[in-house]
Amino acid sequence: MRPSAAQRLFFILPLGAQENRSRFVGSLKKKFAEQEVESLQQRTTIMSKAGTPYSECLVAVDASTGAVLACIDLRTPCALTGTHPHGVPQDDPHGCYLLNVVVREDVRGQGLGRGIMLTAMARAVRLWGATGMYTHVEADNEVAFGLYHSCGFLEHSNDCRYEAASKLGQTVLLVAPASAVAAAAAA
Ligand SMILES: CC(C)(COP(=O)(O)OP(=O)(O)OC[C@H]1O[C@@H](n2cnc3c(N)ncnc32)[C@H](O)[C@@H]1OP(=O)(O)O)[C@@H](O)C(=O)NCCC(=O)NCCS
């Protein structure tokens, strides 16, 4: 039986809406990626007067294909740049802030997250003399909590000055001492 014009329209409309929606999502993703690349370039190329970057991004790549598997950002301690990194408590001039740790979805659960975290922490201690590493975690992100705890992070304080309400929920400030690097690597 041939569908009537009205029936054809009924099928075509949702398909058209779907097509528009996926184009819209695609262009939003592209825009987001472009903004992220621009912001990353700005963050990592601006140097302090002492010649130290305010921020670094470490990337783990597949040795055979060059594909990016994981990344993490680090904010340099105030003692090196003269500017206090956002996220580190004001009374710690030697604190380094870690953020944006992400592992590609299909290679999660294989130790890459802990590997790149510990590499970043060891770099901050060795190169910048960081005595403490800080990060914020969303209170309901159990996987990230597990990752941070396995790298020696503990809750910094119950003081609500250090907590922030994000759009997705409450975030908690965590801290790890420099000694956590060796301890976590040896565990
Ligand atoms: C969080 C994330 C970086 C972990 O990376 P990963 O490579 O999968 O982690 P690892 O394999 O190194 O595991 C490290 C620890 O994380 C925790 N973890 C990892 N996968 C887990 C899972 N599926 N369920 C519960 N805990 C998990 C465990 O505590 C694990 O330690 P263990 O192996 O001793 O049990 C990854 O899941 C991710 O990219 N998530 C999306 C981005 C994100 O949430 N980032 C954190 C922002 S605060």
TrEMBL record:
Task: Give every N-acetyltransferase domain span.
Answer: 11-179
Q: Which GO terms describe its molecular function?
A: acyltransferase activity, transferring groups other than amino-acyl groups
Gene3D superfamilies hit by this protein: 3.40.630.30
Q: What PANTHER family does this protein map onto?
A: ACYL-COA N-ACYLTRANSFERASES (NAT) SUPERFAMILY PROTEIN, GCN5-RELATED N-ACETYLTRANSFERASE 6, CHLOROPLASTIC
Supply the name of the protein: N-acetyltransferase domain-containing protein
